[in-house]
Structure formats: structure tokens, C-alpha cells
Amino acid sequence: MSKSEVGIGLVGSGFMGRCHANAFRSVSGLFDVACEPVLRVIADATPELAAQAARNLGFARCTDSWKVLVADEEVDIVAITAPNVLHAPIALAAIETGKTIYCEKPLATTAAIALEMAEAAEAANVVTLVGFNFLRNPMIGLAREMISSGEIGEVTGFRGRHAENYMSDPDAPHSFRTDPQGGGALADIGSHIISMARYLLGPISDVQADCRTFHTTRPECFDSTKRLPVEVDDMTHALVRFESGASGSLEANWAATARTMDLSWEITGTKGALAFSQERMNELKVFSNIPGRSGYTRIEAGPSHPPYGRFCPAPGHHIGFNDLKVIEVAELLAAHAGITNASPDFREAYEVQKTVEAMQVSNVSRQWVVV
Amino acid sequence: MSKSEVGIGLVGSGFMGRCHANAFRSVSGLFDVACEPVLRVIADATPELAAQAARNLGFARCTDSWKVLVADEEVDIVAITAPNVLHAPIALAAIETGKTIYCEKPLATTAAIALEMAEAAEAANVVTLVGFNFLRNPMIGLAREMISSGEIGEVTGFRGRHAENYMSDPDAPHSFRTDPQGGGALADIGSHIISMARYLLGPISDVQADCRTFHTTRPECFDSTKRLPVEVDDMTHALVRFESGASGSLEANWAATARTMDLSWEITGTKGALAFSQERMNELKVFSNIPGRSGYTRIEAGPSHPPYGRFCPAPGHHIGFNDLKVIEVAELLAAHAGITNASPDFREAYEVQKTVEAMQVSNVSRQWVVV
Amino acid sequence: MSKSEVGIGLVGSGFMGRCHANAFRSVSGLFDVACEPVLRVIADATPELAAQAARNLGFARCTDSWKVLVADEEVDIVAITAPNVLHAPIALAAIETGKTIYCEKPLATTAAIALEMAEAAEAANVVTLVGFNFLRNPMIGLAREMISSGEIGEVTGFRGRHAENYMSDPDAPHSFRTDPQGGGALADIGSHIISMARYLLGPISDVQADCRTFHTTRPECFDSTKRLPVEVDDMTHALVRFESGASGSLEANWAATARTMDLSWEITGTKGALAFSQERMNELKVFSNIPGRSGYTRIEAGPSHPPYGRFCPAPGHHIGFNDLKVIEVAELLAAHAGITNASPDFREAYEVQKTVEAMQVSNVSRQWVVV
Amino acid sequence: MSKSEVGIGLVGSGFMGRCHANAFRSVSGLFDVACEPVLRVIADATPELAAQAARNLGFARCTDSWKVLVADEEVDIVAITAPNVLHAPIALAAIETGKTIYCEKPLATTAAIALEMAEAAEAANVVTLVGFNFLRNPMIGLAREMISSGEIGEVTGFRGRHAENYMSDPDAPHSFRTDPQGGGALADIGSHIISMARYLLGPISDVQADCRTFHTTRPECFDSTKRLPVEVDDMTHALVRFESGASGSLEANWAATARTMDLSWEITGTKGALAFSQERMNELKVFSNIPGRSGYTRIEAGPSHPPYGRFCPAPGHHIGFNDLKVIEVAELLAAHAGITNASPDFREAYEVQKTVEAMQVSNVSRQWVVV
């Protein structure tokens, strides 16, 4: 094993923590990575949780203090899957040590804090990557390439959405998601469709949003007999204009009864169009305008759409959600090794968050807001 | 043939004129109508066109004057498929004669004129019906029934659209569609999705729209070397709030490159959801929330969904666009005979037009507008 | 109205009778027909039924004797929608009069009788047309054109099916459908997929079928307390070889619980492929092999696919089942006027029936049978 | 890390070898496995290839001799992804050592050899598992549960297929796949749909197949100027009867131009039906017969369908092909630890192969063959 090793420190062992661990374990068997990730330290809220996580996920050591993890000399990359409110302190501490940072979204609880983080990282020249994993889908890469090459002409319209149903039950309890500090459907999943819109079409310049709260109280997390008021949005519909001249609409909805992962969009150009939904993540629909033969073609992910071929040798086999995370980690390692520039970095995550906040402002003012 | 006859006078013999004629010819073989429609008079712009139309469509007589047609004593129902600008004068003249009026949409070139027409019709107590044919789909009837019965719970979200591509070619010529008087994608096809939204969810109370014109000039109709400026919208995205408390977004787009008839919507309720697209007009998707078995069920139109059984004896056979017009004419005849109340009538068409205009106002003011 | 008239005599007023009547009433408003059909005489089992049918469907006269109808001098075209067992006597009588004959499928209760009918018609040089209406779909026409032009290369594989659920209820009563004389799923709907396979790929040369009966008794039609034995098949799967060298499989199933009209097929060629289902009759899926962009394109029926434009001016509007019958009647009138050759005629219907019988023989012998 | 370790020896490092390695690396972070797999030895054709594979896939040691690997005392499980012809010698050697064996399909080049392997394994009482990975899909598990519980009634019809296009190019070179010894579409991928049919519906009792070879020569693997004759099938269609009384048809096709992974089926029962395609592997369509609401429901894979929840916390995220292999390896480890019985084992793989051979025999005899 002649590859140099890179020490991983992971903060948090919930769903996303497991995803990270799995990706770090798998990546070198699937990608030609510059360095071999080694699971060195995991941190969680209590010593017991941390020990269990180390055992389950295969980390060598554990701690109940993220500060200890950040300071650990054998940790080269700090992966942050802790609650949103902790992203900033952990990341800022890691920036001071010069370590590479891999942080889940949303980057911070406010755009102002996100900007502070981005500026600190840039000043310290550290590598940062934010986990907008859906951008890693080979079909999204194909879409971006088709748009930027002009294959669908000039883009005129965008119609996007991230709709799920995980909060459609009025008795789904209060949590960090429903906390006014950075919570709500728009912040939680609207950020995904905003990041994807930016990835494909560039910056959003003007917004006008309408935020709605349907479930105005929710049970307290540990005492379901008490109900607390909810102030964040369950559903937001927004009008958007892009700097490019395109415009359209966008929805964030965590009470979308029928939807599990409708991170979807249709992008219309003057010569063609593209349509995608994460509910069928191995497909991209491409419209081409051939007389008598016009229609959407359902393109299946395959080795022609890198890095799909890292996972499967032929189309039709399908990659899954966890594979997107492996691609993200491969990107992270390449950036850590200085081979590529990490993207989306803290700066980009700040831009997303700024767009979210502009929408929230427009909802209150009932007027268009320039982002 | 003991049924009483009802004399039909049709103004206009374009696509919609043929549709009307076909529906009047077919209806009594498919429905138990109270009276037998007889094609008496057709009017068109010139004597030659009128004569040809009479021959092709099977009318007994013809004229180049709609006034003659309206005044004809053997005409009981005046069907109007003339250019939009003529709807008002023809309808107002017909109202004076007390005849039943069947008019294509949009009812008038402005909401004010539409209101005048509605009030005149109500004062004269004449039967009026406006051709929002898509409402006649048995699957739309099923959707409405499911919503009003509470089968999907309280409705929270609406996401609708009417997108076609018939004006996506920048060289599609100027026409009544692109005339500032009542033209534009929003007025032309946005009216369909607005009428359907109202039909399913009730009145829209507040709107905020963003109208865009991509093709700012178009060739003159009879001299393609000259280009005229276009002021109407090619694409409009709008936020909408309903009186019921639901809210969402709505799009009208006649430059939607990939779409031929995406008159579509998803309606989300607290207990279920419905989804429909006119591109698959014989299907309704119904979501029901059964643990481990949740998902959208694709329901096919069949005899359980009246009046489908009038056309085919079993599901899977499918009705088509022209059949919707036959259903509309069956409704018209029932209303003419006093058996049912015609709907949507001029009043309802006015309400749709008022909503369109509120959107246009909001686009200029860049603020929410109360309808 | 200068067009010459053609007198229609219709035997039978069930579902198919209504279809015929509707098509004859509509056709001249939609197609440029050479002659105007006039509904002259309708025959049904009793004078009462015949009178009611005349009133409902708009025929001038009625009779309870098909012989009277066939002999009527004002009847130019005899349309037969009577029970299968009557097809032969009516058609043979009509052939003697030299009238044009429009007969529902299956043509006869045995292939031998069908052959006798075909030979009689050919000897008398009368025009015959058999109601395999699904062939009239513009998308089927497009498929045929693409296959014969070589657009999908040499055809290798066929996988077809006609599956419905109208007999899946074990208590669906005995009827002419379950009568050993010409009944069973294979004869009733298998004939549709066989006729379509022949229309698209040419003659079937060898067959091997496996017929199954799941509901071995069914209630007597007018006394549901008595059950009669059923000998005909509910489901048949068959292997088929075509003269062209292609091969594949085919299913007929009237107990297909989940299916309403799955008259569907996939045809694979060396360069492309086509897929169709009548459950989405306005769509054809076309596969083209473009590196990185391969996939099925969903083509929507539109004016590029004649005679769709006769019904609607733009794609996305959709034609329905009854429109297929209008197209069929337009073909009938053109053949009656000597403009085109009628197809599928009695000869072709005999070939279909011969294929059905070869399958039935192979099921008994458990060996391949040359058709 | 208190879990006991289990030493893995992997023969072969092609696509399937990488799949195995990835699954062994990931499994303990996703499942609560009884023992921790450790990648000890990898064998490949040459020392160089073996060394490279060890480096890429993370094995501690390497060898160019599978015999050395099998004899290695630190190897507890022998995973076989070598060419088909080597399965038997490697497996038989491993059986002698008493080691657990994890072998790719097809198990052997003939059913006779497969039987010998199964009997040897049973006599030695070793754990065997064969890589029919598609059975591991949670949606297949759900289908099986629904069938066995009677949720869709008595099963009457099966219509299945495994169609891909990887050999549709006539210049795709000769390989082990086209070798008469165990090659052909039927043996290669037909085995998948046969194993799945058996998994869902039980043993197939009678078959009648029609095998076709379209590309009768193919280029030699290392000298494309020479073409060799091909004797194996490109496409097979077969009629099948099940011991349960159900019947239907089945296709294996590796020249299916439009298909990448159409391992698909529809299973019809007297009360319901199920439909699945691996091209949308995270979906199962379930038909339920509710008056006016009948239709296929698209059920998305989610935590209600174990072991989906091991990978993702909510529906809509999707698992991929490689995850199926992780599930398989979790099963392997459980069986190795004596917690569960491995399935499908060598005996079951023999039964599949026997069915394949019965089909091949029937193709030659042109008669039905009892399996």
C-alpha cells in the first residue's frame, strides 16, 4: 500500500455521519485517489455514543469533544455532520489549524456567519467542501455540460422544486429543523434546489417568495404532551430571476404528502430542454426538436457519464444515494491533494444561504428582493 | 325521430369551428340529449369561406354576416369561435335575441368587457357557456370530487402550469395571439390553468406574477420580411393564494420548447395528493398514504368516471380531445333545455379574466395584487 | 351539399354498433370524403330494439331482419356488428348483392369459414374491410413506416401482448366470448395483437402456444345460479417466428387483473427499437443509439403523423378510441369510392384467423405448428 | 474493535471482483455484522495483475495462484469471480478445506458439474452462496412477501425478461460469454430471470424455448481481423409452466438494442398484480382493485422495506447496484456465522442451471421438456 495516508476526523455519527464514514471506507476501491483515507477519530455528544460510533463505523479512536478531534495531529480532514449550530465553531477552529474541512449543509445558521466562515477559510487558504451531494450525480453533470455547451440553446425558463414529506405529519416533533435559527423547509431543502439551480444556470439575481406554515405547533421533542409554536415555513413558493436572463419558479416543501425526494426541475432552452427528478436519479430527460420525432429522450446513466463508470461497467445498473457521497469524497481528496479546486466551497455555500435569506426577506416585505 | 330540434348557428370555421361542428353532429348518438341539434347556419368572413365551411361541416345554410346568423329565427344556439375581438359584439347581439350562447375563451379582450357581457346575459336571463373544454375531462371531475369530499384532506399546495411550444419559434408570426389586446401566453393558455385551479380549489385571492417576453419581434403575418414588436408575454410565472388558504405557483408558457400540452398540476392535501397532466389526459394519479405501500396510483379513465361510459364501454380505450368538446356540447344542450345550470358561464369566464389581469398588474407593480 | 350520398345499413346496435354510427356521422366533418354517408337502415334482434337504436343513433329506418337490410336498395354499405356467428351469413348475402361490407372482427367462427367468405368476396369483386381498428392509430402508422424504411435496421425480436381484465372475475358470465365456437382470449383479443404483428412485421410462419383456462366454470348468462363449463382459454402465451426471420413471443390474456388495454409490443431492430402500448395510445417510443444520449424518445402524436391533423391542429391534444373508428370509416369510404384498396380485407382477416387456429392446434399437439 | 475478524480471499479482480471488494469494505459500517471482514488475499492471473489489484482494492496480500489462496490459513471465505470455467475447480478445492464459498453465477459450465459442486458442498457441510444479486433488492423482497401472503391472490400469469444490449453490436468480440461451454444469452442473463422467477413463484416444471443466433460470427478477441463462428443464442424466448400452476413466458436477450437492464416481470394474480423492472430498481408497481380507483401504485423503496433502512433513512434516496452486493455480503457473513441459512446456495444455482439446460434441449427437440 504505497499511497500516502490521510487522517479523517468525523464529528457526528447520525445518518450523515454514517454516510461520510461509508464513503471514506469505499472511495479508494472505486476511485484512483491520491491518498488513502484512514478513519482516525470520531467525535460524538457523549463518550458512550462516540465509542459505539467508532465500533460501528470503524474509527480507530473516539472522543466526546470536537475540540480534541480538531486538535488531533493525526487528523488531516475534519468532516462535520454535527447539528447546524455547531458548524461555525468547529469549522472556524479547524480553519485555524489549517486542516481541510468537509461540512454538511446548511453551512451556518445565518448568511452572515456563513460569510464569516468563507472569509476565514479564504484568508487561511484552507480547502473547504460543502455536502451538496446531489450535484455529484453524473446526470446533473451531463445536464450542466449540455447547458454550458449551448446544446439546448439559450435558457429561458426554470421550474424547480425540492419536495419531501418528512414533516407532513402535524405531529412530527420540533427539532433543529423547526428552530427559527436557520430552520424551515426553505433553508433545509430549498437550499438543495437553489444550489442546483446555481450550479446549472448561474447566480439568481432577484427573488419574491411566499412562505407558508401549515402546522403552527409541533410536539416538544422529548415530551409529546407539550406543543411548541412553529415559526418556520413548511412550504415556500418563489419566483426567481437569474443573472443570465432566465427566470422561473422554485418550491421548497417538506409537507409534500406524496413526495419523498422530488428534487426536480425542467430547464427550457430555445433549442431544447432538460428534465430531471431525484426520484429517478439515474435518468435525464433530454428534449430534441426533430420534425416528426420530437420528444423527451430518457437517457440512462452509464459509463459515458463520468464518474458512473467507477461504480458499474454498463448502463442500467444504477448508482444510489450513498454513491453520490463517495463521488463527493473523491472530489474532497483530490482537492485536499491540491489536484483540483474544491467546489462547492464555503463561498458558494454562503451564496446559497444569501439567496435563502433574500427569499425570507421578500416574504416579509411582500416585494421583490435583489439577492 | 320524436326529439325536438334545436337550431345551431356557428360563427367561425377554423379549428374550433370544426370542433364545435363535430361535437354537434356526434352528441346525440352518444348522449341522451333533450333535443337534437341541427346544423342550420354557419357564418364566416367571406361568402366563399362560408360556403366552403357549410359544405365541409354539414350546415344547411351559410352567410358572411354574423348579424344575419344571430338574427336568424331558426337559430336557437349561437356558437362563437370567431376572433376574440368579436366575441363581445356577437354575444351582446345574441343576448338581445334571448338565444343561448356558447362562446370560446377568452370571453373578451378585457375583464371589463367580460363583466359587461356577463351582466347583460344575467339581466336577460340567457344561458351562456364558455369553452373551457379541459374541465370536461372525467379525470378532472374525479379530482374535483375527491377534493370536495375531503378524500385528500385539507388542500395546502397547488403547483400548476399550462405549457406549450406553439410560439417557441421566434419566427412564428404575429397574430391575434400576440396582439396587446388580450393576447399573450397568460391570457391565451394561462386562462386554462386558472380556470382549472378555480374549478378544483375555488377562487384565487392574491397574485404576484413575473411576465417575460423572449421574442421581442415577430414577422408580420402576411409579409414575413417585416417584423413587428411584441409586447405580450411568452412566459409568466406567478405565485397564487387561494381563498381556501391553499397557495402555490402557476405558469403559462407558449415557448416551452419541450411541451405540447402540459396543462398539468399537483395538488397536495394533508392526507393525500393528486397529479394530472393533459399530456396523459386519460390518467389521474392519486396518492394514498398506506404504510409500506404508499405511492401514486395511476388511475385510468373508465366507466366509473362519468361520462366516460358514453364513449367507451371499458377503461383503457381512451377518450380524446374532441370528445371533451362533445361532453361540453351535451352540457350545453342540457342547460339550453333548462335541465341543468350551464357552467362555466360568462360570469365565471369574467372571474378568470379578472385573475389574468390582476397578474398582469402585479407584473408591472412588482407587488402582490388582490384579485 | 353537392357530394354524392352513400347509404349505410348497420346490423347490430351494441357498443360496436354505436361506434360505427358515430363514425359515419362524424367522418365527413373531419375528412375530405368522396361521398357523404347517410344513415339509412339499422337492424337489430327485435322491432323494439331496432326502433330504439334508430332513434338513438339517428337512422332513418329500422328492421328486425338483417336480410331486409341487406336487400334494401338504398343501402350501399353493409356494416356488421352482429354476434360473430352471424358474420358469415350476413356477409355472404351482402356479397351476393355486390355491396361493400364493413365487418367487425373476428371475421368468422372458424378459419375455414373466413376463407370461404374471403374467396366469395374476391370472386364477386366486392370491397371488404374488417374492423381491426387499432391499426388505424397514427403512431402505428409511424411505426410501420419506420420499420419498412429500415430506420431501426433489420428486425430481430418481437414481444407483444394484448392483455385486459374484463374476464378476470370468475363470475363474469358465459357469453359468445366463452363459446367454444370461436371464443377464448386468443381468438377474441389475441387476434388484435396478431393482426398488428402482421401489419408491422409481415406473416407469422411458425407458432407454439400454451393455452390456459383458469376459470373452468362460469355462470349462465340469464341464470347466475347455474354454472356452465368453460373450455376456451383465459390466457395464452405463444412463441412466434416470422417469415422475415424475426421471432419472439405473444400473449393474449383476458384475465390480466391489472390491465385494461395492454395491447403493447416492443420491436427490436439491429439499429433501433420501437415500443408501444394502447394504454398510452398517443405515444410511440423510439430508441436511437446516440453515444451518451441513447434512450427511448417518447414521441407524441401530432400533425406530422397523418391523419392526426384531421382531428387536432397540434400535438398534445390526443385522439381517442372512437377517432380510430372514424379513420377506419374514412378508409372504408375511400375504398368504396375506388380510390384506395381496402385493408385489412376479408383475406387478411382470414390469415389472422388461420394463425389463431395454428396456435390452438399447437397447444393440443404440444409441438410447433407451421401456419 | 471487539468483533471477531473473518479473512476474505478473493479470486478475480474484474468488475465483479471490485464489487465484492467494495461490499466487504463497506458492509460492517452499514450492517450489524457478526464478524468483521478483513481483506487478506487476492488472486489474479499474473503476479502483476494480482499486485495491482491488491493495491487498488485494499488487500493485504496477493498471489497468482488461486490454489495458494484457497490453502491460505488466514482465508475463511473464498470469493470466486474468476471465469466460469474455473468456478468448479476452485469451489471443489475450497470445499475440501471446509471454507465458506461465495461464487458468482453461473455456478458451472454445465448443470452436471453444478450438481457435483452442490453435492460436494452438502456432503462437506460448507456454507455456499451464489451471487444472484438482483434477488437482494428490497423491492423483490416486498414482492415475494406479497405473493406468499396471498395479497395478490393465486398467481396465474408470469411474463419475465432479462434484456440488455451489450452484445447487440455484431462486432462485439468472442469471449467466455460466447463460448459454447456455458455461454449464450440464456445462460448468461436468462439465469437471472429464471432465478428470480423461482424465488418469487417456485420451481419451473415445463419449458419450451426458441433460441436464436443473429450474429453468427464475431471477431476473435485479440485479433479483430479474424472472425469465429458463434453457436450460442443471442435471444431466447421460452414458454414456462410452474409447479404452482402458474404459467407464462420468459425472454433472455443480450442483443436487445434499446435495453440496458430490463430484468423485468409482471406477475398476475387473481386479486392483484405486481410489476418490476431493474431499470427502475427502487420501484415496485402494485395493482389493487378498488372500484373507481384501480391502478398500479408506484411504491418507492424506503425503510419499510428492509434492509433499505441500512443505507438511507427515508424513501426517495435510492440504493444502487453496488448496494445489492453489500446486502448479499451481509447475508453471506450471517450464514458464515451460522445465524442464517445461505440462499441461494449451490443447490439452488444447480436448479437454475438445470432449467437453462432444459430450455436448450427443448430448442433442439422443438418440444416441451420437463425440467
Automatic annotation (TrEMBL), chains A, B, C, D:
Gene3D superfamilies per UniProt: Dihydrodipicolinate Reductase, domain 2, NAD(P)-binding Rossmann-like Domain
SUPFAM superfamilies: Glyceraldehyde-3-phosphate dehydrogenase-like, C-terminal domain, NAD(P)-binding Rossmann-fold domains
Cited InterPro entries: Gfo/Idh/MocA-like_OxRdtase_N, Gfo/Idh/MocA_oxidrdct_glycsds, GFO_IDH_MocA-like_dom, NAD(P)-bd_dom_sf
Keyword Acetylation part of the UniProt annotation: no
Keywords of this entry: Oxidoreductase
Coiled-coil ranges (or none): none
Domain of life: Bacteria
Ranges for domain GFO/IDH/MocA-like oxidoreductase: 143-274
Ranges for domain Gfo/Idh/MocA-like oxidoreductase N-terminal: 7-132
Keyword Acyltransferase: no
Molecular function terms, GO-annotated: nucleotide binding; oxidoreductase activity
Pfam families linked to this entry: GFO_IDH_MocA (PF01408), GFO_IDH_MocA_C3 (PF22725)
PANTHER family given in the database record: BCDNA.GH03377
Name of the protein in its database record: Putative oxidoreductase
Species of origin: Octadecabacter arcticus 238
